[in-house]
């Protein structure tokens, strides 16, 4: 696999909206919607790990489906920038649950090479396909002699290694990691994260990591976008966003993460309340109803503002820059 050149854009999402119909009139036309994504814009560069973090229901998995091409936006545009051969960038995915995302009827080696066969790029020679599966298995820490087993014969961590090998099969430009460790034990999570880091270093992989776990994002990602109610509310280098957050929601999200080095701080923001419904979107700032900083001007739509001392760090709040 050829190492990617860091910095060149590979995915470019512009003002992505996704609406799901909740009710229809007698003609079958949607009259009420769930607003899953509300103007998401981001760019993923070759060779980087881009994190997308937020609480459950904020639109992370919907965005993953859009980036994969599994879901068409209601509005907006997603561009997969072309490869050297002119084909659009290839995007593969590692799902959250390795048990349900792998075909239980196939031995592991067939599961691994399944994307090659589906894309019409697999050899008709069974021995060649098996050899390719063995190469991929070694890359993720599995032994070739294990590949004749079925999915239920592997542990959870081993199943996720199979899922990662399957994602690598087509030599993709981008791998979307949708909560890749949340279904695993803590010790196994660390093994999978370290494996992902090693694979990225060895092969120049580009990751989009979808997670609610801030620690996982901090461990793996170069840049991060924080989502709230289908919007990106803060975006920038992971070190800046996670160590010096500006948006009040990002601060609350980070303060809600349990820490052993301090008791709960009474003078800091409280952990966030339940995410509001998305059938009727709030007017102005989406976070206004839960924000301790809400003031005059929050009833107007907020745009991403660059942090003056760090231009790559942006946040959707007109008050944050004064605090």
TrEMBL record:
In alphabetical order, the GO MF annotations are: ATP binding
Q: Known InterPro entries for this protein?
A: AAA+_ATPase (IPR003593), ABC_transp_ATP-bind (IPR050319), ABC_transporter-like_ATP-bd (IPR003439), ABC_transporter-like_CS (IPR017871), Oligopep_ABC_C (IPR013563), P-loop_NTPase (IPR027417)
**What PROSITE patterns does UniProt report for this protein, alphabetically?**
ABC_TRANSPORTER_1 (PS00211), ABC_TRANSPORTER_2 (PS50893)
Top-level taxon of the source organism: Bacteria
Keyword set, alphabetical order = ATP-binding, Cell membrane, Membrane, Nucleotide-binding, Transport
One Pfam family recorded for the sequence? oligo_HPY
Give the matching Gene3D superfamilies: P-loop containing nucleotide triphosphate hydrolases (3.40.50.300)
The answer to keyword Mitochondrion applying to this record is no
Q: Which SUPFAM superfamilies match?
A: P-loop containing nucleoside triphosphate hydrolases
Taking every annotated instance into account, which residue ranges of this chain make up the domain ABC transporter? 11-254
What family does this chain come from, according to its entry?
Belongs to the ABC transporter superfamily.
Q: PANTHER family recorded for this chain? A: D,D-DIPEPTIDE TRANSPORT ATP-BINDING PROTEIN DDPF-RELATED (PTHR43776:SF7), TRANSPORT ATP-BINDING PROTEIN (PTHR43776)
Record's protein name: ABC transporter ATP-binding protein
